[in-house]
Amino acid sequence: MEMMEMDFAKRWLSRILIALTLSAVYLYGYPSATISYSVVDLFHVALGIILTLLLFFFAVPLLRRDFLLARLGWTSLAAGALLGIVLIKIGTPLRLKAWLYAHIALCLLGTLFLLTSWLDSKGWLGGDLLHRASGFATLTLLIVGIAAGAWWTREVEWKNANRISNPPMPPESMDREGDGPQGKFFPSSAQTKHGGNIPSKYFMKSDACQRCHADIYKQWDSSMHHFSSFNNQWYRKSIEYMQDVAGVRSSKWCAGCHDPALLYSGLFDTPIKQIVDRPEARAGLGCLMCHSIVEVKSTMGQGDFFLEYPKLHELAASENPFVRKLHDFVVRLNPEPHRRTFLKPFMRADTAEFCSSCHKVHLDVPVNRYRWIRGFNEYDNWQASGVSGQGARAFYYPKSPMNCADCHMPAVPSFDDGNVNGLVHSHRFPGANTAVPTANQDQAQYEFAKKFLQDKQLTVDIFAISPAGKETNAPARNEFGKPELSTTFAVGEESDASLPKAPNYGSYRSH
User: Fold this and answer.
1) 360 has which bridge partners?
2) 373 phi/psi in degrees, rounded to 5
3) Is the pTM of this model over 0.70?
């Protein structure tokens, strides 16, 4: 009787194990935010539960009568299955990454032992110990190779495919930026992957994110990103004046980064004075604006990016309790597809370049009816400074390179999903603006910005001084039309150069 039970158990356990292995390779190696992937994910969970139950009911005959190697396999598999049951309950966030890999390792080890035992029982590994050891080593290499290939596809290829690089040459005029003069969003360089509009409600569902990211949502709610649109009285007056003077189309140059709910839905074709009181005009830069950028085309700024409307957004933002719970369960069970949708590798690896897509601008004829001129440019200033580690002054300060997020998104304590060691990047985005939090009577945001500005953000380094009263030569004057000699280096770096000396303007003179 026990032999019949064992044969029945082994037959069904083997079939389930094959299905689990194939689905695991797919789930690990090719994560994607699609319905089909989610179905396979739930299928894997269901089979895992069935496998665990079968192992529980047939543990005695399997461990009593099977071969030694098979018994080791069933034991490893049972341990991996039990850990899998725990992960179904608590999910697999980043902080539990080690648990997920322990589950994978135990199941792979159990599969290796069971496969070796099965091949040996068929006589396919040879009769002597040497052939068996050789066969076991071959199977080990095969499984390790498959696992390594899945890891390479999941990690390396994904990261390499999502980096930011510049084209060989910049466009010769603004007409060649984005979709060009015929584009829906021109003169902004922004584009959508599907070439059409995105519903405004997509950019207005930031509150849906707080189900898993409550602290980050609260930080963003006070930030300048939230108050980037017509909920900011200074920006509102700027656009109203610009549209009065230059028309609606020119102001889309601003809307590409400031007003996603209006621009990408097509509402921005209407003069803002007519729609300024609509909720879309007060949405600001919500979570899904920055996190829906799937490609940054260059570091030329001007909204030079592609946005993508995720296929499963309606499920995430659904008001149906069952759909919402199912969505949240699938995300917590396997956050990788969600992470890949909203946190592209370039957001971490090329942070400054990512930020440059909106924090660097230029104006040209379609905007100012004049010519090309540079607007504000925080990216190039950062890159040329010592802080980036890329400029000539990097030898002096700071000790290690820093990007935008190091200062403007400091790590703060949080137990939101996605935290790493109890920390998340703050989404308050502190900067030089204290007017908006003051106007909003947001004391917490004001204090955060104030603390940021007072935390040694500006230093003055004096390389040389001269005593008061010391005579200095009058500045040399170049004759009209002759080239002038200038330097961006501090005195001392080019002390041998013959440069005109500055007059004495006070008791001490700094260089």
Assistant:
1) 377
2) -140, 155
3) yes
